[in-house]
Amino acid sequence: YSERLDQTQGRNPRAGRFGVLENCPDVKIIAEGEGDIPNVNVDKAQQKMSELYQVYGSEINGIWTFSDTPAQGAIAALQVSDNSDIVVTGIDGNAVAKQLIQSGQMYGTAAQFPNALGYDGVVAGLEILAGTYDQEQTIYVPVQWIDSSNVDEYAAFDQ
Fold this sequence. Notes:
The protein is of the alpha/beta class. It has helices at residues 2-9, 13-21, 42-56, 68-80, 95-102, 114-130, 151-155; strands spanning 62-64, 87-92, 108-111, 144-147. Helix 5 links the parallel strand 2 and strand 3.
């Protein structure tokens, strides 16, 4: 999924989601939660998901979040509602998400690699200082989809 997302929309997660969903006629978006992204935390995400669940209930089959933190809040809200049938996904590949995947509470996450992001940022900075940076280029850092099939391999990074 993440590879198709990257190829279809230049790695813009929101645009990529819609690009992929155009090819999935059976998927219907019933709600989008707008959040206070810089201040998102598990509690706020849990509250938002509880509100969405009260309105949409059994219409919800899956949840995609912009990071693993709101995914954790969604999972917490679903546990309170005693609904474990809803698929929850996130983006980051953090240690908590991998534990949730291992325990079967989260379907998957698109792991980002902060070290690679930092390295590429430093290289770009040095190129800017040297006057050799191509401002037309886009730097892509690969992501990795993590789910139950490979989570143990990636969980080892958190040890």
